[in-house]
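To illustrate this point, what follows is a protein record of this kind.

___
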Amino acid sequence: MDDDTVCEKGGVIELSKVEEALANPSGPNELPEGGLRAWLVVAGVWITQFCSFGYTNAYGVYNGTSATPECGPDYYVRIYLAEKYTSAQISWIGSVQLFLVLSTGIVAGRAFDNGYFYHLMIGGSVLLVFCTYMVSITQAGKLWQLFLLQGVGTGLAIGLMYIPGMGILSQYFRRRRPFATGIAVSGSALGGAIHPMMLNAWFYGSLGFRNGVRASASLNAGLLILAMFLMKPRYTGTKAYRMGTLESFRKFLKDGPYVVTILGTVFVFGGLYYPIYFLQLNSIKNGISKGLAFYTIAILNGASTVGRIVPNLFANYFGVWNTVVPCVTIASILVFVTLGIDSAPGTIAFAILFGFFSGAYASLLPPMITSLSSHDYEIGARMGVCFVFTGIGGLVGTPIAGALLTSQFIWWRPIVFSGMCVGSGAICFAIARFFTARKKGTQML
């Protein structure tokens, strides 16, 4: 008898269906697709995205260009870590943070599949708030303290929350999952616009650096407590799904479209963050005032908020893959377009367009990976395995772009590198879509 079947009272039933029933007692086709409870969950995930991924975008305030010209650029480099470390060295804090946010998914994904939703969300929230508070009592000139708190601690905290937040949406939505995910992850884009403005006002206003950090930590703490009351899993996973980490790797990496998709995410993350991280600097080099240069990031994140919702509406009707491939392709073209941008209107137009299409990718990525899952109870594990590799792209992509830029600001080198990375990702997604469509026998993917 095949291993995937078991006998019961003289009959044969599929073991996979038993596990499916255990993992999803309401049945795969009986998801609410809406209702008050479902949209409260979306609101809760939105808040966690605002406080977590949205706050990572505020790292540019810690190690970026100030909105007020008289304050000068680079708070850490200019004041807190002055004359001890270069901006390139300090930038590793942000790179390691992004890497851990994604790679922690291999643990968080499996834990979520086994029913530890609240453990992950509460643990991640407490760690995030704690690390943020602790930044306010670090010693000036001590890079290792900031690296441990903002790089390692914050990265782990957000990583623990990300996949459970995306995974709980799959318990309430199937057909409308891309739209619900788009609304939820728009919180990170709006947070990326609001947190930097608040921190700049606090750091260079009456609060100062230390009290400003404490104020932001208190704000996040209050919002995360509210989010915990809003989010409620419909079911808490199944202990029947006991696949180990190595077994997960072996099983998932035999899936051709899944492997090609992972490769695509590595490429995209390797190039997607260069235009975002270097937009302010490029703006100033193009003669834009420092005040306006800072707000280009807010403009980009504002457009990203829209981009995380509108394309997902199309995904509900035309399919996730049919939406994400054009969006990533356009994003790669926009990176190359920056070779010819040398004015304020052009920079703002780029910020709007790139924010929109990069935001679309960020919101469509979870449902794209989810669509490759054989069962709902392995969604978290598949996302976790994918993000382990994706984190590598996020870790090395921006430092490579910075090294290509050099102190002489040779812009075409990182632009070509970034554009080729994102373009290669679009090609990988197109290939994965082709084989997935042939496997499922439909073009509506």
